[in-house]
Amino acid sequence: MGKNLIYILLLTVWVVTMSSFTQRTEVVVYPIPEGEPVSKAFSLEAGGEDIPVYIAKVAPLDKKLRYKAMDDKINSAKYFDEASFAYFDIAKKTKIKVKAAIKINTFKILPSSANIDAGINGDEIEFTIHAGQKLTVEINDDIIHSLHIFANCIEKDRPDPNDPDVIYFGPGIHTVSRLIVRDNQTLYLAGGAILKTIVSEQEREGADPVTGLKKQPYHPSISLIGQNIKVKGRGIIDASQCPTHARNMLMVEGQNISIEGVILRDASVWTVPVRMSDNVHINNIKLIGYRANSDGIDICNSKNVLVENCFIRTLDDLIVVKTLRGKGECKNIVVRKNVLWNEVAHALSVGAEINDDISDVFFSDCDIIHDQGREWSLRIYHCDAAKVKNVHFENIRIEECRKLISLWINKDVWTSDTHRGHIDDVYFKNIVATGSPANVQLLGYGESNLVNHVVFKNIRINGAVLLDGQIEKNEYVTNVIIEK
């Protein structure tokens, strides 16, 4: 056989192989585990492939029930409705078809900044999605029973399940009561895996017979303690079997830690607390919760933390920066390119617990697609004695809010210090918000506890530029600047 013919045959084999590989990896579909309920509200197709659609409990639309879920902590798990979500990986722009169990009269795809060009074709909504997008589809003005679509990029660098430093969970349903990931280890959840966190019978011993809770707090379900630790994959961590207020889902305490790609569902209390840590990267996680105090990401007494490309819909605070007494300052925090849905509390905030100093916090390029909370979308909530300095809220798009901006120093239920602190150098830039009444307030506490040097630049509320007369201020606010 001549060299040219051999070359042509090898080239043909390579082209066919690569073509087959490309077809296989255009849409990566992960199987839904046996025994996991499937959504009856929606079906989804991506690139011609059927995509499993999961169910997640979310806060109810009724405001009284939503607030009751926060305040009636013992019975918090009783107040919920159901939304749907789906995930897959794509290599390029991909055609999506969404079919609902009811007739589609109208629809909305959020965030609006994604500029999705969609239409109804028969009984389906059709549009194109890009890798990395996190979109929410709402049918007939029903914002609660929505469909969240998580289009991941193609997964790279999957760890070897036989590596002794890899804690590997493959497709299927698994359970864990207590898992500690230590130095140089990777926790990996493959697509199609669901890791259910539980409270063991041994841990339940001595619990209050009414609440089911122990007097001393439970350990987190999963703890990342040490250095050079990774959590990655496409699977789901589910805390639905943990009693309300039982335990954190995924706690970070260390250096050089990354969390990427996974879905976190139904936390029983704070979902991802980051405590006394340095150099933490949280990227492309999807978080849905509905129970009392099911905060999203709480960054506490930590430095050099980056939270980006995430989706969070939960009952309590979404992304918040705090400092507890004696645990160290919080500094160099960046929160960017996230899609957020606020149910009751704060969307992006600093506080309430501020016992040690906080500085250099940057919230930027985020979409708040809904904010139905009784608290504030963007806030510094200061009821302790430390200093807060150099906080930026920039390039944020808010599609629904009630209370927009608050810088506040006073006493509150969270107060633990005898004195009050300061808020200095806060910048609001390129904020676009829709809502009513969409208030803005700046309230200091005393002559030694000022809100000082606040800059507003290009703030638009319901299409109109923010004016000085629209800002509620007291006598303990100084140096407020409004720029066009």
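Second entry:
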Amino acid sequence: MTSPQQLNPGRPEYTGRSILVMELDAHPDEESLARTVRSFAGTSSIASSSDFGHHAMVMDQIGDEDATLFPNLGLAVVPGGAERVAALRNAATTDARIRSVEPEQVMYALAAPADAPIGDQQLEQYLRGYRDAASALLTNLGLDGATVPTQFAPNGAAATASATFADTDATTWGLQAALVDTSPWTGEGIRLAVLDTGIDLTHPDVVGRRVINQSFVPDEEVQDGNGHGTHTSGTAAGPRVPPSGSRRYGVAGSANLFVGKVLSDAGSGSDSQVLAGMEWAVTQRCQVISMSLGSNDPTVSSAYEAVGQRALDAGCLIVAAAGNNATRPGDPGFVGRPANSTSVMAVGAIDPEMQIARFSARTGPAAGGQVDIAGPGTVVFSAWPLPDEFKTIQGTSMATPHVSGIAALYAQATGATGMTLWGEVVRGARQLTLPSVDVGAGLVQAPR
């Protein structure tokens, strides 16, 4: 099995295909979208997701020379690399049917680097120094032992300025910090999709549970041969009382879980695979889509921006990992694709001492590259494919399913969807004594 710590992207990689974002207002039906693809891209062979009826698009049935049409999203992926992109972009400037053209990229599962794992001496010294400096500052200000003002705490409850958390026999530190362990909501009736490397369907905490699943990776079943997808699915929607006898690690244990395998067992996949999974989840009427994946590209993707907005319009909130390209305290990194789209909720990571994780990407200068909220993202215990059964890892990937699962709780508690649901999640966050460029609205909190 591939270790997720080996999956972090370097510079953006490209597949040699291009993505067309079409104006839906200029296309009354799917056939008009197909005509645009044929005439604009010069491609006669088109595979459409609608060809598969009520089933998800099977990516290994699509030839390399085919165009792939996602009519519900208004997107198409066509053959042709960088030179073709330039020509198509030039043509698009005078074609009202086309919003944008961009090269298709490779997406990766986002787990924190393995070169300095949580618990190593260097990180312990850094955190200890940070804590001691903060304590000294509070003492000098006469605020030793002070509490955060109630207006900065969830539901008016005071939160200690020096709060630290740890796993117990009953629950993980992340569920405690996010108030999931005391929330009465379970996500029942809410459709929650996790797009990742799949899930271990033989895991004792999954066996017997209905998991709607689909693989979008050619020649691979949804069964997770990597681990990253099982871990994120476990955090987002693991059972309230795990049959395995483990401590609780899942947020929305009663949600209807949809798992789309969009990344291979090696931890990577194309935009086409991710977009196919997103269209499937939106078509399945999922209220929340969790995506712990991305590319280290600070430029905003018109394709993911369009999909995010169209998903919100359809009542679906997309939550994505901000990225792990920071090496703090020196380099705060930047939010990468697709989380840097303004229509996608970007999630940063904090540690058990309520400090920013040293790998967590910061809001960048480009429009859209904003961290919107933070979740528990270090020493995160969750499910793992057998025979390991459980594993503790770190990354904004681990923070993202905390937020996604809590979004499902808010959807159940309030009935909110789309942009309204986004507002509920952000308004419920606990403000932290950290820059908003790192944590956005603050630490995600479950509804009470």
